[in-house]
Each structure stands twice: as structure tokens, then as C-alpha cells.
Specification:
three-stranded antiparallel beta sheet; GAE_dom; cytoplasmic vesicle; membrane; Clathrin_a/b/g-adaptin_app_Ig; elongated; alpha+beta; transport
């Protein structure tokens, strides 16, 4: 039995009620089959209903191309209900790339000439949305006539359509130039705003228009003066708000959505023109009031805008920190995510304790898809602003206990390094970790850190001499039993078992009792299916049997680790890289340049100069040096200054340069991306291009994520061969995701130091 076709409302409810993607696809496939059958039957009375359902399916991302011709039929229909849906379908389903869009030109022309105001408005909207250059040329005369129609509704849409036509076909400027002078006398602000936009487009594309409109500057100034001095007018009221684009932040009614829209436009204006500090504080306060609004959309806009402002106006945004923290408990995931990003960006040295406590409370109850971001943000904030080492260790332990499965991979290494460098906290840390491990062995990062710490400082655990916490008496058998429990647990990863096995081995030199139990466990894992764990167990068993006299020395405690910041480590890494590049082989058997060119395969063949380098001209100083058999090394070249080429919302891109002296035609550029904002930059890709006379090779980047709040930078090496020593031009394209938005930037770097190519 054939299931009857659904109404539009019923289809929407059924699709929204689908619990899985498969159920949604099944509903849509059945309904699309009904729609196709109805189109084939040619039912004129219900064609607009079927197309309306198809347009909803199209907006969900499903194919709807088979409805294109039905749009043309509905547009040609004399009924307004058909035309309305037909024009909407044309705007959604047709564009310049499809020849079918040209078939509606005659219908639009007829509707513009003979239709009612509503029909003319539909035709103008469609033309301004998907009109191609050919359609614009054919219909320019009809649009010009409508610019002077008595109806303000039609005139406003005609002006906007003229703007689209000028952008598509600049030579149509001569047609729309004369009506603009009359349109400047309009009292309707919508038409006046559209006319100003049309004049700007004309001036940008036609020198004659620019010269023509210079004469109307006094009239434009008079219009501005009138706008500022005119009082309330019912003619210019929108939802009870007069002249929305002319209001200011202090006298706008916020009880209606139109007033909130005006205030948000005010905020955007203040931000875009880089206003004085007082106005920026006003913008932040407006957004702070938005956070108290009951409308979720307004709160989301406020959180997103404050996140943009937090870098430039940190103190002003800090005043609204309590309200932002309250937004963490929003049931809407998109709101809580934005509140989390903003809360992490607000953490500083003065509020790190309070903010971390709030964030840890949110971590316990937050949705699963936010746990990784929240845990990583807390760990980064603690690493950057920790007031004491003990507080830092406690914070990481609480995060590992609450959401250990969601932390980043480097959390274990960071905590072990932190504990290893705090000698005064060894006893405190091992006792805290032992208690946490005894309660829960499911959080793998926590288990790994605890096993490492017990293996290193097990003797301090058994002494029970820690004054920082309550006395805890631990027996050797209890410690060994706990580690064996970790080894036997089905929840333990192979890496976790490796930590536990190493901890048992180290305890063989820390405990005072017999080691037979430890030796027995080690020998059991000598036949483990995991190859790495088996190898480790075999090596430990060999250490027991053959090198027992060396075991204590081999398994002694790790030395204290000095923690260096990521910037220091990166600078040391860069200096080593530069030193390695500068320390080339002093007496190569063949020219180094020729080797490099062959290696990179950048040129067709080595040049004559590369194969036979010219001998150096002898000089008295050089002869004396050779006589004394001293190395003759040229003086080191002056370092090339670094260059910052990009900065946006905390993301910075800088270039550093090295020219190996043995290959002067080669330039090594290190692209370094750093991120001082509150959110990670993910899916980061840097692409480069150079003129054809150059040869470019891009090395693989160090990663595709630039951590937030000054984390470890991302680097990428570019090798550029410039055999002609021509001035270097570099074009970069960056694509990345920041604060949930995809960004693409393309720019050219023309201000490279002359030392990079001369």
C-alpha cells in the first residue's frame, strides 16, 4: 500500500524526530520518491507544496537538482502562491553555472513590467541573488524604470538589484548614473542607504562617475546633518525603534530584539573603527548586558564577541567574569563551549586559583565532547600561572582523577617532569598518587604517573614521614599488590603495564624485603604477547640473573630535572639547528653546491660554475695563513633579522632566515607560528609560492596545532634556491580553524631583508 505524501509541517516534524542519521535518510528518500512521482504526474495544484518540501530537503544538504525545471514552471504560473515558491526555488537551486537559469529571463522580464508590487519584489530579489552577466544586460532597462516607481518597496529592491548589476557588468554604469541624483532626495532611509551603496559602486568602477558625484558632496553632508538633527519619525520606525542605524548605545530600548540588534551594530562599529578606550569599555559593557538576556542567540553573540575582545581589552572583559562563569552551566552545548573558551582566556596570575576551581567543577559535569578542551585548558593555565609547585601538582592530579582519559598526550611527561624537579614535594606527591591509584585504576594517565612516582620514590612512601598530609602507614606487600593489580587489569594499556613493570623493578632496590615476588612477576611477563613489554621483562630478568651486582646503580633515582619554558627550549633548538647548518664539511671531495642541487633535483643539471668553482685570488694575508698552516675561515656573516609577517586574533607568524655559507644561493626560512589567544589553532596549514625563477621545497611541519596561551610554537622549514640572486617575493596561504571558525588568509611578503637574496 502506497504511503500518502506528507505535508511540509509533518515532514519537518518527522525529520527532526529521527533519532539516527539512517532514520533521517530513510524519511527523506521516501518523501523524495513521492515528490518525483508528483512532478511526473504534472499535478499543478500541489506542485508548489512539493517544491517547498524539496527546498527544505535541499537546505538539509540532500540533492534536489531534479526540482530545477519545476521552479521554471511555477515562476511562469499566474498564481502568486506558485510564483513565491518558484522564485525561492530559483534562488536556492539555480546559479550561473547552470544553463537552466537563462530560461527564466523572459518570466522575470514580464513580472518586472506587468506584475504587482509583490511579484516585482520577488523578481528583483531573484535577479539580485543569481542573475548572471547575460541576464543583467537583458534586464537592465526594466530595472532602471523601476528605480523611479512610486512604491518605496519596489524602489528599494530595484536599487539593490542595480548594485548587483554594476558588480556583474561594470559597463552598465551609464544606465544607472542619471537616476541616482533624484534618488538622493528620498525620505525613505532604506532607499537612501541603497542609493549611497549604488553610488559607491559606481565611483569605484567608473572614473566618469567619480567625477560626476564629486559635485554632490555638499548634498551628502546635508543629508548627514539632517539625520543627526531630525527627531522621531513614525515613517522610520522598525519594531518600535526609530532609525536603527542612527541610534546610540545610551538611549536604545533593549526590551525588543530590534534594539538589541542596534546595540550589537554599535559594538561592531566601535570595534571596527578602533575607537578610544572609553568607547571600547562601553562596547564590553553592552556585551556584558547581553549575557544576562534570556535569549540564547543573544548570549551566544555576546560570548563570541567578548572572546574577540579579550586580547585587546582584557581588564574590561574581566569585570564580567562571574557572569561568564555562570554561562558554563548552560544546557546548550554551543553556549557552554563558547563560555569555556572565554573563561580559559580570562585566566591570569591574579585569578588562577578561583578560575581553576570553577573550571574543575565544570569538568566534573560537562558534556563528554567538552572534556578534552576543558582538561587541556586547565593544564595549560596551571602551567603558565601556577603560584606554587604544590598547587600545580594538586591541580594536575585533580584533572587526571576527573578526566584522565581526555587529557593531552604530554600530560604524563609534564607531571613527571614537574614532580622530578620539586625535591621537597617528592614524599607528598608519592603519597597523594598512591592514595589516588588505590581508589581508581581506570584513568590511564593517572595510573602511569602514579606508577612512575612509586617506582622512583617508593622508599619515601614506606617511611611515612610526610608532614604535609595525614599520616599513612603503607606496607611493602600493599604496594606490590597494587602494582600487580594494575598489571593484571583489563583496563590497563600496554604503556601503562610498562610503567608498572618498571616501577616493580625499581622497587627491588627501594624495598627492604625479599625480591622473590618481584622476580616472579618479571619472569611471567617474559612470555607476554606484547613485544615491547616482553622485551622489557626479559631485560629485567637478565639484570636479576647476570648483573645483579649492577642493579642498584642502574635503577637508582632519576636526577632532578630543571624545567625550562617552551620558548627557551625552542630557542636552544633553533640555535643548534643554525650551528649544524653552519658547520659544513670544510674540505668536501666535490663542490657542496653541486651535491645540494642534485639532492633536491631542483635544476636540470649543475651549472658550470658549480662544477668548477673559481680559485680564490691569492693575497699576502692568505699566503701567510697558509704558510703558518692555520685554518683560513671567512668571518661569520651577520645574522639576518627575523620578520613578522602575520598577526590575527593572537596568532602570529614570523620568518627567520639562514644562508649556509657553503651554498650562498640557498636560503633556509623557518616559519614559526605562535598563539597567544585563549583557544587552540587547529588544522593549521601553511603553503608558499615563489616566482618561476626560484626553486622552492617545503619540509613537513612540526604539527598542525598551535597550542593556546603561548604554548609550544609550530615550525616549518622552507628551502628556496635563488641561483640568479634576484629579489625574493614570497606568497603565503594560511588555512586553519580558530574558535570554531575556518579561516583562510592569502598574502604576499615583499619586505624581505636584502640579506636574504644579495
Amino acid at each position: 500500500m502506497l504511503v500518502p505524501s506528507l505535508k511540509v509541517q509533518d515532514l519537518i516534524e518527522e525529520i527532526r524526530g529521527a533519532k539516527t542519521q539512517a532514520q533521517e535518510r530513510e524519511v527523506i528518500q521516501k518523501e523524495c520518491a513521492h515528490i518525483r512521482a508528483s512532478f511526473r504526474d504534472g499535478d499543478p495544484l500541489h506542485r508548489h507544496r512539493q517544491l517547498a518540501k524539496l527546498l527544505y530537503v535541499h537546505m538539509l544538504g540532500y540533492p534536489a537538482h531534479f526540482g530545477q525545471m519545476e521552479c521554471l514552471k511555477l515562476i511562469a504560473s499566474p498564481r502568486f502562491t506558485d510564483k513565491r515558491v518558484g522564485y525561492l526555488g530559483a534562488m536556492l537551486l539555480l546559479d550561473e553555472r547552470q544553463d537552466a537559469h537563462l530560461l527564466i529571463t523572459n518570466s522575470i522580464k514580464n513580472d518586472l513590467s506587468q506584475g504587482t508590487q509583490a511579484v516585482q519584489g520577488l523578481a528583483l530579489c531573484t535577479l539580485s541573488t543569481m542573475g548572471s552577466a547575460e541576464m543583467c544586460r537583458d534586464l537592465a532597462t526594466e530595472v532602471e524604470k523601476l528605480l523611479l516607481q512610486p512604491s518605496p518597496y519596489v524602489r528599494k529592491k530595484a536599487v539593490l538589484t542595480a548594485v548587483h548589476m554594476i558588480r556583474k557588468v561594470p559597463e552598465l554604469s551609464t544606465i544607472f548614473l542619471p537616476p541616482c541624483a533624484q534618488l538622493l532626495h528620498e525620505r525613505h532611509h532604506g532607499i537612501l542607504l541603497g542609493t549611497i551603496t549604488l553610488i559607491m559602486e559606481l565611483c569605484e568602477r567608473s572614473p566618469a562617475a567619480l567625477k560626476h558625484f564629486r559635485k554632490v558632496v555638499p548634498q551628502l553632508v546635508q543629508i548627514l546633518r539632517t539625520l543627526l538633527t531630525t527627531g522621531y519619525s513614525t515613517e522610520h520606525s522598525i519594531s518600535g525603534v526609530s532609525d536603527p542605524f542612527l541610534q546610540v548605545a545610551t538611549n536604545t530600548d533593549t526590551s525588543r530584539n530590534a534594539g538589541n540588534a542596534v546595540l550589537f551594530e554599535t559594538v561592531l562599529t566601535i570595534l571596527d573603527i578602533r575607537s578610544a578606550a572609553g568607547l571600547r569599555v562601553l562596547a564590553v559593557n553592552i556585551l556584558g548586558r547581553f549575557l544576562l538576556n534570556s535569549d540564547k542567540n543573544i548570549r551566544y553573540v555576546a560570548l563570541t564577541s567578548l572572546l574577540r575582545l579579550v586580547q585587546s581589552d582584557h581588564s574590561a572583559v574581566q569585570r564580567h567574569r562571574p557572569t561568564v562563569v555562570e554561562c558554563l552551566q548552560e544546557p546548550d552545548t554551543s553556549l557552554s563551549r563558547r563560555a569555556l573558551e572565554l573563561s580559559l582566556a580570562l585566566v591570569n596570575s591574579s585569578n588562577v586559583r578561583a578560575m581553576t576551581q570553577e573550571l574543575q567543577g565544570f569538568l566534573q559535569s560537562c558534556p563528554t565532547d567538552l572534556r578534552a578542551d576543558c582538561a587541556s585548558g586547565i593544564l595549560l593555565a596551571a602551567e603558565r600561572y601556577a603560584p606554587t609547585k604544590r598547587w600545580h601538582i594538586d591541580t594536575i592530579l585533580r584533572v587526571l582523577t576527573t578526566a584522565g582519559a581526555h587529557v593531552r598526550d604530554d600530560a604524563v611527561a609534564n607531571l613527571t617532569q614537574l614532580i622530578g624537579g620539586a625535591q621537597e614535594l617528592h614524599a607528598y606527591s608519592v603519597r597523594r598518587l598512591y592514595c589516588a591509584l588505590a581508589e581508581d585504576i581506570s584513568q590511564q594517565p593517572l595510573v602511569q604517573v602514579a606508577a612512575w612516582c612509586i617506582g622512583e620514590y617508593g622508599d619515601l612512601l614506606l617511611e611515612g614521614s610526610c608532614e604535609e598530609i595525614e599520616p599513612l602507614q603503607v606496607e611493602e606487600e600493599e604496594v606490590l599488590a597494587l602494582l600487580e593489580r594494575v598489571l593484571q587489569s583489563h583496563m590497563s594499556l600496554p604503556a601503562t603495564r610498562g610503567y608498572a613493570l618498571t616501577a616493580l623493578m625499581k622497587l627491588s632496590t627501594r624495598l627492604r624485603g625479599d625480591n622473590n615476588r618481584i622476580r616472579q612477576v618479571v619472569s611471567i611477563y617474559g612470555s607476554c604477547l606484547d613485544v615491547e613489554l616482553q622485551q622489557r621483562a626479559v631485560e629485567y630478568d637478565t639484570l636479576f640473573r647476570k648483573y645483579d651486582h649492577m642493579r642498584a646503580a642502574i635503577l637508582e633515582k632519576m636526577p632532578l630535572v630543571e624545567r625550562g619554558g617552551p620558548q627557551v627550549d625552542e630557542e636552544a633548538k633553533e640555535s643548534k639547528e643554525e650551528a649544524r647548518l653552519l658547520e659544513a664539511a670544510p674540505v668536501p671531495t666535490e663542490p657542496q653546491a653541486s651535491k645540494l642541487l642534485d639532492l633536491l633535483d631542483l635544476l636540470d643539471g649543475p651549472s658550470e660554475d658549480a662544477q668548477h668553482p673559481r680559485p680564490l685570488d691569492p693575497s699576502p694575508g692568505g699566503a701567510l695563513v697558509h704558510l703558518l698552516d692555520l685554518p683560513c675561515a671567512p668571518p661569520p656573516a651577520a645574522p639576518i633579522p627575523n620578520l613578522k609577517v602575520f598577526e590575527r586574533e593572537g596568532l602570529q607568524l614570523s620568518l627567520s632566515f639562514v644562508r649556509p655559507p657553503e651554498t650562498p644561493a640557498l636560503l633556509l626560512i623557518t616559519v614559526t607560528a605562535t598563539n597567544t589567544s585563549g583557544g587552540d589553532v587547529t588544522h593549521f596549514i601553511c603553503q608558499a609560492a615563489v616566482p618561476k625563477s626560484f626553486q622552492l621545497q617545503l619540509q613537513a611541519p612540526s604539527g598542525d596545532t598551535v597550542p593556546a596561551q603561548g604554548g609550544l610554537p609550530m615550525t616549518q622549514l622552507l628551502r628556496i634556491l635563488n641561483p640568479n640572486k634576484a629579489p625574493l617575493r614570497l606568497k603565503l596561504r594560511l588555512t586553519y580553524t580558530h574558535f570554531g571558525q575556518s579561516v583562510q588568509e592569502i598574502f604576499e611578503v615583499n619586505n624581505l631583508p636584502v640579506e636574504t637574496w644579495q
